[in-house]
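Researcher: Please translate sequence to structure tokens.
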Amino acid sequence: MEELMIAYLSRATICAVLLCSLGCSAGHGLPLEEVSGVVTRGGAPIEGVSLEFRPTTGRASFGRTDIDGKYALQYTDQISGALIGEHAVQLRVPTKTPAEIPGFADMDKEARMMVIQYDAIAYPKPINVVEGEAAILNFELNDLKK
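Model: Translation complete:
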């Protein structure tokens, strides 16, 4: 009986490891590369900026800056990165920071989306995401025009 239990646990462990390695790896087969960076205005980080990297063909990747102005692009909720190749980039910059909106911290996600207004800024030239090179792309808003 003990030998049967050990054999069962061994097989279960092997199956769990195999399933995790299949589901937890970057084995999605997509030509993606990591893209991250910081968005600033006058050298100060900007929170809440939405970034969209739209490739010539294929699905766009999106990111949002945190309180330190840092972002990392996501292809889907579970897959990070952007497709390899040329991208048009658009930044949606909040007209006010969350701290400037009364009661923002107490609002639910849907209410927050309703009160924030954005200025859309198109990056003036395409950005190339290169295979094998994780990209760190920083944007200074004072250098860009609406």
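Researcher: Any highlights?
Model: The helical segments are 2-24, 109-115.
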